[in-house]
Amino acid sequence: MSRKIRVLLVDDHEVVRQGLKAMIDATDDLEVVGEAGTAADAVRRVGFDDPDVVVLDVRLPDTSGVEACREIRARFPDTRVLMLTSFADEEALLSAIMAGASGYVLKRIRGTELLDSIRRVGNGESLLDPEMTERLFRRLRGEEPDDPLLARLSPQERTILEHIAQGKTNREIAEEMYLAEKTVKNYVSNLLAKLGMHRRSEAAAYMARLEERRQERYPPEEWPQGG
Fold first, then answer.
1. What's the pLDDT band for 109 if we cut at 50, 70, 90?
2. What is this structure's pTM?
3. Cα(143)–Cα(135) distance, rounded to whole angstroms?
4. 134 neighbors 176 (Cβ within 8 angstroms)
């Protein structure tokens, strides 16, 4: 008989840990070897309990589960981490991937699916919630905008909006996109209506504000000066 997959549960809610423990201990191939309610305790328990998989809540009282994941993976590279969260947050998903998590699933997942996720991570697979992953990759590819207003626009309308933000006229946009000027005019009317705006200047100002917010959230990296 193969060795059971050893699991450490990390969640600041005891009732959640108890529920997960009861479910895991009812299986033949998984066993809970420890529990923790904080990130600091989680890192310590990994050293004491030697789990194969840490089921780790993203939100913990002392620091984020992502930071705990990064610390666990740095100290114990053979330990796999499955992030568990109540919130569909693409930025947290990206942070978890960068921190070395092997999986990221939502708490609304069915019990049997969670057990299967633990098994798969314990056996070396990378497992991420498919809906969240697809949304994240669409954003990274520029196919899904950060702003909900932009999500109302088609890809063609977003391209035209970017040209408007650059101060181009309908004729210039038409030449750039190989469209009839009348077609561009119709696109502009439609996108303004979807955005709840009346003038091109409003749309241009709106795009400028979005760009400012992006710069604040993702400032350009400063390269160290050579000596």
1. confident
2. 0.58
3. 9
4. no
